[in-house]
């Protein structure tokens, strides 16, 4: 069995081999054969799973050496492809003589992996057994401030969206994806400044941001934002990013606690969303294709199934952020407590 790191290594070696060492004839032959099997596994906080994907070496624009080897004719062909979009007319390809083109991946059923924004080894099955009712009772002044700040933010949100939960989810995910990126960025800079390890927290927080952004990419498929909602996101992001950045600099303990409470509210919102779906007030449309691939869901999944897995993700974010705040409360730095990488 190959680990995720091993998979990526094999992948890199394969692409390098295709681009750098094969003659054109050999490379063409190699491209016609499925050459690598992937085994990935994830065992953190949930049952292990594994899957197999095939990768085909991407031979377009293979070069044997440096700039001298670049034939005028091939270069012109590649430029033409860049303009035409290659085989796929919807996708404008960049000129690839740098040898950085991504390999083509194939799913288990033989169809092409069509997502460039995430790869098969980044997908997972959501852990639906997580406790949704868990709550951190605010004890200190700072906890209470975080709790009531979140409660206060909920009031205008309820007023604006009312029971339009699809729209509400989409808009809130534009905010939810900010804290992980800001926290990850600040820990990254801290690690550089202090010449010290992060304990995995940079990766864990960036994973959270990416996971939240995938929630947004999913809900975008079922609800299209109106112009004034886009304007609202623009404004809210400008304010929230800077406020959270400052807040995290001043007190990461407070910042993580606040996100923990935000996630508790997110769980509540998605529970209300499910109720509306069950009452028939929101149509239970088929799950978007991106969701089926990202959460490895059955092909006949519906919007209700998507809301279930997203809610489970929010519960994981809640745990991670309350845990991070607790670490600070115990007078320790995050790097001293191993980060729950892959816990989402
Ligand atoms: Fe989310
Ligand atoms: Fe979340």
From TrEMBL:
One of its GO terms (cellular component) is mitochondrial inner membrane. It is a multi-pass membrane protein. It catalyses: 2 a ubiquinol + O2 = 2 a ubiquinone + 2 H2O. It is an enzyme of class 1 (oxidoreductase). The gene is AOX1. CDD domains: AOX. Homodimer; disulfide-linked. This is Ubiquinol oxidase. Its main location: mitochondrion. One of its GO terms (molecular function) is superoxide-generating NADPH oxidase activity. Its cofactor is Fe cation.
């Amino acid at each position: 069995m190959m680990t995720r790191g091993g998979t990526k290594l094999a992948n890199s070696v394969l692409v390098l081999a295709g681009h750098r060492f094969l003659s054109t004839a050999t490379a063409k032959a190699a491209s016609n054969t499925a050459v690598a099997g992937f085994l990935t596994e994830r065992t953190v906080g949930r049952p292990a799973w594994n899957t197999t994907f095939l990768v085909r070496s991407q031979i377009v624009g293979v070069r044997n050496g440096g700039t001298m080897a670049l034939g005028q004719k091939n270069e012109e062909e590649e430029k033409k492809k860049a303009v035409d979009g290659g085989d796929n007319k919807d996708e404008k390809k960049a000129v690839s003589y740098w040898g950085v083109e991504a390999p083509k991946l194939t799913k288990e059923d033989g169809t092409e992996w069509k997502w460039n924004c995430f790869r098969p080894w980044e997908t997972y099955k959501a852990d639906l057994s997580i406790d949704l009712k868990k709550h951190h009772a605010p004890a200190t002044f700072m906890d209470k401030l975080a709790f009531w700040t979140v409660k206060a933010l909920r009031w205008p949100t309820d007023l604006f969206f009312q029971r339009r939960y699809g729209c509400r989810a989409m808009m809130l995910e534009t905010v939810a994806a900010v804290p992980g990126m800001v926290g990850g960025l600040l820990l990254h800079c801290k690690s550089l400044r202090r010449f010290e390890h992060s304990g995995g927290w940079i990766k864990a927080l960036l994973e959270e941001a990416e996971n939240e952004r995938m929630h947004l990419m999913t809900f975008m498929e079922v609800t299209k934002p109106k112009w004034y909602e886009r304007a609202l996101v623009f404004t809210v992001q400008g304010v929230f990013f800077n406020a959270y950045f400052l807040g995290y600099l001043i007190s990461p303990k407070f910042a993580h606690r606040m996100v923990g409470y935000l996630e508790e509210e997110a769980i509540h919102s998605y529970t209300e969303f499910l109720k509306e779906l069950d009452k028939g007030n929101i149509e239970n449309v088929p799950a978007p294709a991106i969701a089926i691939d990202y959460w490895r869901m059955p092909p006949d999944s519906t919007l209700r199934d998507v809301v279930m897995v997203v809610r489970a993700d929010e519960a994981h974010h809640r745990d991670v952020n309350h845990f991070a705040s607790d670490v600070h409360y115990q007078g320790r730095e995050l790097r001293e407590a191993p980060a729950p990488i892959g816990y989402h």
